[in-house]
Amino acid sequence: xxxxxxxxxxxxxxxxxxxxxxxxxxxxxxxxxxxxxxxxxxxxxxxxxxxxxxxxxxxxxxxxxxxxxxxxxxxxxxxxxxxxxxxxxxxxxxxxxxxxxxxxxxxxxxxxxxxxxxxxxxxxxxxxxxxxxxxxxxxxxxxxxxxxxxxxxxxxxxxxxxxxxxxxxxxxxxxxxxxxxxxxxxxxxxxxxxxxxxxxxxxxxxxxxxxxxxxxxxxxxxxxxxxxxxxxxxxxxxxxxxxxxxxxxxxxxxxxxxxxxxxxxxxxxxxxxxxxxxxxxxxxxxxxxxxxxxxxxxxxxxxxxxxxxxxxxxxxxxxxxxxxxxxxxxxxxxxxxxxxxxxxxxxxxxxxxxxxxxxxxxxxxxxxxxxxxxxxxxxx
Length: 380
Ligand code: PLP
Known about the structure:
Blueprint: H1 2-10, E1 16-17, H2 29-40, H3 53-67, E2 76-79, H4 81-93, E3 99-103, H5 110-115, E4 120-124, H6 136-141, E5 147-153, H7 165-178, E6 181-185, H8 201-204, E7 212-217, E8 230-233, H9 236-247, H10 255-266, H11 270-291, E9 306-310, H12 328-339, E10 341-342, E11 344-345, E12 354-358, H13 363-378
Parallel strand pairs: 1-10, 3-4, 3-5, 5-6, 6-7
Antiparallel strand pairs: 2-8, 7-8, 9-12, 11-12
The protein binds pyridoxal-5'-phosphate (PLP).
């Protein structure tokens, strides 16, 4: 939808793009300056596959500061984005026949990343009324003797929700009982709006250290999606296996981008606070506007820059002079053609009732976008 919206925009249509999966801010200037300095100093050659030691040390330092967790640089591998870190892990850990639990709504890439290893994604559903936190019994019901691992992502793309401590404790108990591996994707950990420090399964169950791999990166926190720096942190053997896989595919992540990421982690952090405050304000604005539209519902986002909104009250209705809207894909298509607003269909995230609406956008665009959605829905 993002690509389609950009094409239409290039053709001169007045598109409001609420489909983007990245911050609308520019990379902060001190981070750019560090990259320029790296280029000028000739830091332009291969680095060690797992990433420059200073960056891996900075990752460990941040884990200590933010989560109170102690790790050493040989327990860190830097990759070309969190996505490659997840891909490496999947290749290193899973075999054909393995089953991997993924909690819906999930980030679109989890199932294909698991499938590319030959393993089978097993989806655990959740309900909007429970803030998209799955029922622990539903989770347990899907465990078999083939279940190898579980993915967690909180704050979540696409829901903007944060798993409760009691849920994480419940998952930890299941993980302990069944000896599962946990891949916790903490990429939005700095974008939570409640002022609380980041929390993941290890902060509630430190005894699981040998079974948990944490994935993170600079893409979302520092508006650095194009730089392609992410990492995985966990048990040495697993991290070493990821580095071996990466060594035969992309080798190291860009040397220059690694220097930029080092500056991001060790330099001034006001940029993160400013972006988070803007997202928190827009989350409220978007939620208020959406709630004014009859039939739409959402849990107010508590982090990220996404809202996941239930449009199913409008399914089964007919487009003016056209077809029946039968799900999230039809609804996105309708909103793009009728309202010139781009959103993302929930079916891509494993929930066909909803649409993902990104608030990585100026306030005026959000207001105008939701106004247009309202008018388009009134025509149904
Ligand atoms: N994990 C989640 C939940 C995401 O939403 C994204 C990007 O959209 C990623 C990982 C990938 O991040 P990166 O740009 O570091 O590869």
